[in-house]
Specification:
The protein contains 18 helices and 9 strands. The protein is globular, with a radius of gyration of 21 Å. It has 375 residues and is α/β, with parallel strands linked by helices. α2 runs parallel beside α4, α7 packs across α17 and α8 packs across α10. It folds into 2 domains: 248 residues, 3-Layer(aba) Sandwich (Rossmann fold), CATH 3.40.50.620; 97 residues, Tyrosyl-Transfer RNA Synthetase (Orthogonal Bundle), CATH 1.10.240. The longest helix is centred in the C-terminal third of the chain and has 29 residues. The strands form 2 sheets. The protein has a 7-stranded mixed sheet, sandwiched between helices. A two-stranded antiparallel ribbon has the order 1-2. The structure holds tryptophan.
Length: 375
């Protein structure tokens, strides 16, 4: 089956090599990794393991940074449902970037996006999830002094004019070929990409000063920025750079993307230990052998095992421990059930802590919106 990756649809077995060529992004090579390490002192495991693997103009923002010209980070989340662990992956990395580079983060909540793209979704439904999603983001630990949240409909008085400047330079045919939109697509969905472009230069406007921008995101968002990157310099700002990750595999198989609309493929931040256990025991795609005897003899295949992959993507940052799990599983020493137990414990602990932070986040929420009162 042909795979397909657009901002609104990810399907099939993704060939990331092919995607890099198709999108025209660069792979992150060792030279770039060395450069990051020379600034940050260490590499995040998502860089070491090539989970963040592609970029546009990352070298440019790093060079500017070294000259004393700091960038700001920009990322986002379109609310339409609960947060699952796949969403957390780029945010955890973004938090690391904020800490290591000591930079501002602008976080966009385009609350109109899914309304425009999902047939039966109402604004009331979106609003139900908006605040909860914001709390999940704050729970990641972003510095309240250096993090600003943008909500499209709430801050429209600032965003709309800038979006129009972008929209004026994008034609319908560009949107059709970049996103696969059709004659029949609603006109809101055709305009939307202009809204997602704005935070990449809004801080430069507010501070009346050109500031470089680095956007950490999953690779499916690239078409948005491929379009706007050429336009933004024409408005007088730096071309935004990006750093891109692959998708956390769904519970049911190692390719594709975790999907909030297929409930058994995802673990939500609200799932308790019992639910986590049930889902993993029942649905986790296994690289193990059908019987214990066979497993001991032949060993498992970590490359296709979702539990192993989730440890690699998120839940086992320690390379040595991960490597031990890899070889124990491959040799047959570690059984599928035992591997599942390791993961269940890791996720449960992680989410317990996350939810404690989420409870505390409520008190802090206003801080992330102060930028709007001042500007
Ligand atoms: N379109 C993204 C989503 O579907 C939300 C988003 C807005 C975003 N701005 C972004 C994602 C910048 C990454 C980077 O959730």
């Amino acid at each position: 089956m042909q795979f397909k990756v657009t901002p609104w649809e990810v399907r099939g077995k993704i060939n990331y090599e092919k995607l890099v060529k198709e999108f025209g992004v660069q792979k992150i090579d060792n030279k770039l990794l060395d450069k990051i390490e020379s600034i940050t002192g260490e590499l995040h495991f998502m860089l070491r393991r090539k989970i963040f693997f592609a970029h546009r103009d990352l070298d440019f923002v790093l060079n500017e940074y070294e000259k004393g010209n700091k960038f700001f980070l920009y990322t986002g989340r379109a609310p339409s449902g609960p947060i699952h662990i796949g969403h957390l992956l780029p945010w955890i990395f973004t938090k690391w970037l904020q800490d290591k580079f000591d930079v501002e983060l602008w976080f966009q909540f385009p609350d109109e996006e899914k309304f425009l793209f999902k047939k039966n979704l109402k604004f009331e439904e979106v609003e139900k999830y908006l605040e909860d999603n914001i709390l999940d983001v704050i729970a990641i630990g972003f510095d309240p002094e250096k993090t600003n949240i943008i909500i499209d409909t709430k801050h429209a008085s600032l965003l709309y004019k800038e979006a129009c400047k972008i929209a004026k330079r994008i034609t319908f045919s560009m949107v059709k070929s970049s996103f696969g939109l059709k004659e029949q697509s609603n006109i809101g969905s055709i305009f939307y990409t202009a809204m997602q472009a704005v935070p990449a230069f809004l801080p430069s406007i507010l501070k009346n000063n050109k500031i470089p921008c680095l956007i950490p995101h999953a690779i499916d968002q690239d078409p948005h920025f491929r379009l706007s990157r050429d336009i933004i310099p024409k408005l007088g700002y730096y071309k935004p750079a990006s750093i891109q990750c692959s998708f956390l595999p769904p519970l049911t198989g190692v390719s594709g993307k975790m999907s909030a609309s297929e409930k058994e493929t995802a673990i939500y931040t609200t799932d308790d230990e019992k639910t986590i256990r049930k889902k993993i025991m029942k649905y986790a795609f296994s690289g193990g052998q059908p019987t214990v005897e066979e497993h001991r003899k032949k060993g498992g295949i970590p490359e296709i095992d979702v539990c192993y992959q989730w440890l690699r993507y998120l839940f086992e940052p320690d390379d040595k421990k991960l490597e031990k799990i890899y070889y124990d599983y491959k040799s047959g020493k570690l059984l599928t059930g035992e591997l599942k137990e390791i993961l269940i414990k890791k996720i449960s602990n992680f989410l317990k802590e996350h939810n404690n932070k989420k409870k505390k986040a409520k008190k802090n929420i206003d801080k992330y919106f102060e930028w709007f009162n001042i500007s």
